[in-house]
Recover the amino acids of this structure.
């Protein structure tokens, strides 16, 4: 199957410049186009996904585990937010936005993938298609979770149950960087000669 949009077309160039995973799917959720950002999620040999359902292409755990059934036909598919939002768009319910969680298989292990999804229907050659944008929000979700921190030394326990410094934890889980300063209370304690009384 050939990509719906030729890679030299201006639309392909625009979609490939997008920082969001961008797909065009038909009413059966088969992928007709994907951009460069989608390639990063899908991994090696992304061209294989053309014509595949969105869940199978993204290595949804339930699609892989349900080998006797296809994506959209497993028990877990009944509550799949990705399927539901695309289906709603193909049925003409307009543009839809939603936060979703998909369990993906990555390097042989299941991994949660959180995204903001926008699905917008459009007509093309007498066919109803859906433009799908997925914005990766894994870092935001990670930061919104309860983070175990030592009450005494303030080290954080990571996902591997290893205690590490706050700076190291945030460098590994976010794009944040630190600059250093000293708060007035610590300045008074550590450097009383430089502390200013307010």
């Amino acid at each position: 199957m050939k990509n719906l949009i030729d890679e030299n077309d201006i639309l392909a160039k625009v979609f490939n410049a997008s920082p969001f995973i961008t797909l065009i799917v038909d009413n059966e959720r088969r992928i007709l186009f994907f951009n460069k950002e989608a390639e990063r999620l899908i991994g090696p040999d992304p061209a294989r996904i053309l014509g595949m359902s969105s869940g199978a292409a993204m290595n949804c755990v339930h699609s892989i585990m349900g080998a006797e059934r296809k994506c959209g036909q497993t028990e877990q598919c009944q509550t799949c937010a990705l399927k539901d939002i695309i289906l709603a768009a193909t049925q003409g319910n307009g543009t839809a936005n939603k936060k979703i969680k998909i369990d993906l298989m990555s390097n042989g292990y299941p991994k949660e993938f959180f995204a903001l999804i926008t699905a917008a229907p459009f007509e093309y050659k007498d066919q109803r298609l859906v433009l799908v944008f997925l914005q990766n929000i894994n870092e935001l979700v990670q930061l919104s979770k309860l983070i175990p921190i030592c009450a005494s030394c303030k080290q954080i326990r990571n996902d591997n149950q290893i205690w590490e410094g706050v700076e190291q934890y945030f460098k590994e889980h976010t794009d944040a960087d630190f600059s250093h300063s000293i708060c007035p209370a610590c300045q008074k304690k550590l450097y009383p000669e430089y502390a200013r009384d307010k």
In short: The mean pLDDT is 80. The beta strands are 21-25, 31-34, 96-106, 109-124, 127-136, 156-157, 163-164. DSSP finds eight helices and seven strands in the chain.
